[in-house]
Amino acid sequence: MSDSVFILAIESSCDETSAAVLHKDRVLSNVIATQQVHERYGGVVPELASRAHQQNIVPVVDRAINEAGITKNQLTAIAYTQGPGLMGALLVGSSFAKSMAMALDVPLIPVHHMRAHIMAHFIRNHSQDPIPEFPFLCLTVSGGHTQLVLVRSVMDMEVIGQTIDDAAGEAFDKAAKVLGLPYPGGPWVDKRAKLGDALKYTFTTPQLKGFDYSFSGLKTNLLYFLRDRQKEDSGFIEREMDHICASYQHVVTNYLLARLEAAALHTGVKHLALAGGVSANSALREKFTQRCNKQGWQGFIPSFEYCTDNAAMIGIAGYYQWLSGTKGALGDVPKASWPI
Predict the structure, then answer these.
(1) Most Cβ neighbours (<10 Å): which of 30, 152, 176, 316?
(2) Nearest 5°: phi and psi at 288?
(3) Domains defined along the chain, listed by start
(4) What is the dihedral of CA 281, 309, 299, 287, to 10 degrees?
C-alpha cells in the first residue's frame, strides 16, 4: 500500500505559490511561482499576494502533477499549509486543496508551516541522504519566525526559545531597506557581505535570559549608526556598503548560533539542524558547520531549494502525518498565527 503513496502538497502562506508531488519521502516535482509584484513596494502586500495566488495556483498544481509523471487520480492525499501565514494567502491554498480533495475523494492533511520547515530534513531523494536522529535541536529562521525547537519526534516538537519581537529574516530585510538595497533584502545583504570586512564595524545584541532572541534593538542600533555616519559623510553608505553588510551579517549570525550552541550544551543534544528561509544565508551555513565540527555535533542543513518556502516541505510533513493517521476535515480553517 505504502509503495503507491503519492502526496500532492500546496504551499501558499506568503508570496510563493508552490505545489509539489512526493512519492513517500521522495520529491517528484516541486514547482514555485514567485510573486514579483511586491518588489515595487519593498515588502509583501497581503491583498496583492492573495490575488497572485489565485492566478498562479491552477497552473502551478497542473505543472507539478505533470512533472511528477502521474495523474491526479493516483493521488493518495492532499497536504496544504493551514498556517501560520497571511490569512488571504492561506485561504487560496486551503480552498483549492479542499475542493480538489473532495473531487478526488482523498484525505486532506493540514500542515503547520514551521513544522514543515523542520521536516524538510526528512526528504530523501536518495537513500543515502542523511537525516537527523531524535531528539535534535532545530534553529528555524525566516522572515516571520526565529525559534529554537527541540524535536523529540515527528509529532512532538517544543519551542524552547524564540524572538520576543522581530524575526531574524526581518532584521536582514529592514537593514537592506535602510541601506537602499533591492527587495527581498536578505540575499542582497549576504551577497554584498562576501565582499566586505566582517570585523570593521560593531553592533550590539541584547543579553536575554534563557534561549530567547530580540532583534528590534539591533535594527535600531544600525539605523542610528547610519544616521550619525551620514551626518559626517553623505557618501558613507555607498562607499562602505560591503563592510556594513558584512559586519551586520556577522553579528546576526553569531547571535543566532550562540543561542543554539547554548541550548545544545544545556540539553545535551548532539544532532543540530537549520531550517527556514534564512538558513540559505551562506555565512550562517558556514558558521553552523564550523561550530558543529568544533563541538563534535552532527549538523544538518536542507538543500537550498528546500530552505525558502516551498511545497516539498509541506509534502514531507504531510506524508509523515499520513503515516501517523493524522488527517484533516473540510471544516478546518486557516490560522494566521499558530504555535508549534
Answers:
(1) 316
(2) -60, -45
(3) 2-123+309-324 (3.30.420.40), 136-301 (3.30.420.40)
(4) 10
Q: 184 CB contacts (<8 Å, ≥6 apart)?
A: 173, 176
Beta bridge partners, 319, equal none
Computed over every residue of the chain, the mean pLDDT equals: 94
Residues 273 and 138 sit within 8 Å (Cβ to Cβ): yes
Beta strands in the chain (DSSP E): 6-11, 16-23, 26-34, 77-83, 108-112, 136-141, 146-153, 156-162, 271-275, 298-300
Largest CA distance in the chain: 71
Could you report the per-residue pLDDT of 34-80, keeping only the tens digit for each?
766 656 666 777 778 889 899 999 999 999 999 999 999 999 999 99
| Three-class HEC string of 17-28 | EEEEEEECCEEE
- From edge to edge, which strands make up the β-sheet containing 108-112? 26-34, 16-23, 6-11, 77-83, 108-112
* Integer Cα distance of 268 and 265 in angstroms: 5
